Amino acid sequence: QQGMPSPQRAPRGRGGRSAFTLVEMLVVVAIIGLLCGLLLPALGQSRDGARGAVCRSNLAQLADAGTMYTLSNAGRYFEYRQSETGGVRWWFGWEPTNSLTTNRPLDTSRGLLGPHLAGIGEKLQCPAFPYGSPDFFRKFERNAASFGYNWRLSGLKKLGSFEIPAENIAPQTRHRYEGRLSQTFIFADSAFFEPSSNVNAFNEGYYIAWSAELTQLSGYAHFRHSHNAHAAFLDGHVKSIAHKSGLHKLIAGGPTANLLAPDGSNAFYGE
Predict the structure, then answer these.
(1) Residue 67 to residue 75: CA distance in whole angstroms
(2) Cα–Cα distance between 211 and 209 in angstroms, integer?
(3) Residues in the chain with pLDDT < 70?
(4) Residue 130: which of 115, 113, 147, 146 has the closest Cα?
(5) Which pTM value belongs to this model?
(6) What is the 3-state secondary structure (H, E, C) of the chain?
């Protein structure tokens, strides 16, 4: 009708479009924040799942390499390390003689398992190992091995912090474990405590040695996958083992402890 004021229109932005009000913008921001809060945990779980998959794949390849080694050596497993002229041949690489404490040279292609693994350097790593921790004590110039070898298979045992030969065969033979190949592990997620000036210092666990004394220096299983440790067994299968035994100490990613069988025994070690 004539004389009546026309209805007020919302102000338009450039291009003739209505502008957002402050309330509408706050609602949009709140929705985005809510979505981020819902998605980030899922993304974190996806990342952890991917790391776990890589870890299990590398463990399976290590187990296969161990089997190939036994087939090439009269059914006998390998030693944890061999002292040779000019250096030490570890199962994971060759270290020439040197006087260094940290960042020691290492050639991973010349380890005892080297001939049985292609691209051996990456196969020895678990992406969930806390290499970035300030407590990580770097023994070698490069990442060496974040998986531990079954100490018992090497034919050695622990007496305190000392390594001594077993009374029986050293190293062990695959024949000895016939019927128990699926119950005895060969490699598993690990960590080793190496107190230096930092009492919390740890490094890569190159072996895992069952010990009832959790305060001694030794390689332990590291339950870094949501409180599970991945282990590869002598028959080649890989599975996650939940934490069941007493803690040694905590480091980033999960507790460390003895790798015990579900019944609480040390059967996983092939005793």
Answers:
(1) 8
(2) 6
(3) 1-20, 36, 38-46, 157-169, 195-196, 211-217, 245-246, 271
(4) 146
(5) 0.79
(6) CCCCCCCCCCCECHHHCECCCHHHHHHHHHHHHHHHHHHHHHHHHHHHHHHHHHHHHHHHHHHHHHHHHHHHCCCECCCCEEEECCEEEECCEEEECCCCCCCECCEHHHCCCHHHCCCHHHHCCCCCCCCCCCCECCCECCCCCCEEEECCCCCEEEECCEEEECCCCCCCEHHHHCCCCCCCEEEEEEEEECCCCCCCCEECCCEECCCCCCCCCCEEEECCCCCEEEEEECCCCEEEEECCCCEEEEECCEEEECCCCCCCCCHHHCC
Question: Is residue 189 within 8 Å of 126, Cβ to Cβ?
Answer: yes
Cα separation of 190 and 253, whole Å? 12
Give the tens place of pLDDT for each residue, 69-119. 999 999 999 988 888 899 999 999 999 999 998 899 999 989 999 999 887
CA–CA dist 219, 18 (Å, integer): 67
Structure tokens at 75: 């059914």
Residue keyed to tokens 């009269």: 74
Q: At 134, which amino acid appears?
A: P
Are 209 and 158 within 8 A, CB to CB?
A: yes
Tally of CB atoms within 10 A around 50: 12
Which residues have a Cβ under 8 Å from the Cβ of 244 and sit 6 or more positions away?
A: 260, 262, 264
Is residue 101 within 8 A of residue 140, CB to CB? The reply is no
